[in-house]
Amino acid sequence: MIQTRNIDFYYGTFHALKNISMEMKAHTVTALIGPSGCGKSTFLRLFNRMNDLIGDTKLTGECLIESQNIYDKSVQVDDLRKKVGMVFQKPNPFPKSIFENVAYGLRVNDIRDKTYITGRVEESLQAAALWDEVKDKLKKSAFELSGGQQQRLCIARALAIAPSILLMDEPASALDPISTSKIEELIHSLKQQYTIVIVTHNMQQAARISDRTGFFMLGELIEYDDTKKIFLNPEKEQTQNYITGRFG
Ligand SMILES: Nc1ncnc2c1ncn2[C@@H]1O[C@H](COP(=O)(O)OP(=O)(O)OP(=O)(O)O)[C@@H](O)[C@H]1O
Ligand SMILES: [Mg+2]
């Protein structure tokens, strides 16, 4: 589903990603872990070309999604972002109703059919495990929801346009343990339909929810393997030190 080949990325002269080659299969959850500043978010943002929005950057190497290089001139970024949804660290609902937050992606894609939109909003809220909590107040402002509910709303918003890949950058770091476990259960259930790449600082979380884990340090991919292997029997000493909390 996703494949990077020899990716190098620079902010100005700063070499933020160094020769990263990685493959992620469809319907798997991949966790990206590593100390602050090692390049996890930068790497994640490659897949929906969010880094394009930052000036003075340089990218070399290939980033393929379903075998297509997404940095090819022929690729329309809008189309790419329909295929690759993203959820951020802090819930960022729009100043709109709960319903309109989820319908937003459909409307900007020129979908007008009211019955379709209503159905899709419900499906997305169901998939994000939020429907039961909001079904009687869809017209209320999204800001009236709790932080954990807002984050699930943002997940529903991302799901509404039916992406095949979901990028999540520390989606539970601002949440309490109950909301966090809801998000984790959700990720587990979404895996059947989506390919998920998640950045997390929480080692237990990475171990619980992911199939594969990549450990980054100073812009390098130190080790990438089955999650069990990374947490039980890593090859590299740096990985061992990191997961046991000896640094980072
Ligand atoms: N817009 C930017 N301009 C210049 N340098 C940047 C920019 N964004 C990130 N960097 C630098 O690139 C490196 C990687 O940053 P990135 O945000 O990818 O790290 P991270 O692993 O996600 O860290 P954290 O765990 O703290 O979120 C850091 O040294 C950071 O200072
Ligand atoms: Mg980050």
Features:
248 residues; alpha/beta; Rossmann fold; 6-stranded mixed beta sheet; 10 helices; 10 strands; 26% strand; binds magnesium ion
Task: Explain how this protein is built.
- The chain is an alpha/beta fold and 248 residues long.
- It has one domain (2-243): 3-Layer(aba) Sandwich (Rossmann fold).
- 37% of the residues lie in helices and 26% in strands.
- The protein has 10 helices and 10 strands.
- The protein has helices at 40-46, 77-83, 98-108, 114-127, 131-134, 147-160, 177-190, 203-209, 227-232, 237-243; strands spanning 2-11, 14-24, 29-33, 57-65, 68-69, 84-87, 165-169, 195-199, 212-217, 220-226.
- A 6-stranded mixed beta sheet has the order 6-7-8-3-9-10, with helices on both faces.
- Helix 3 (98-108) crosses helix 4, helix 3 (98-108) runs parallel beside helix 6 (147-160) and helix 4 crosses helix 6 (147-160).
- The longest helix has 14 residues, at 114-127.
- The chain is globular, with a radius of gyration of 18 Å.
- The protein starts with a strand and ends in a 5-residue tail after the last helix.
- Adenosine-5'-triphosphate (ATP) is lined by residues 11, 14, 16, 34, 36-42, 54.
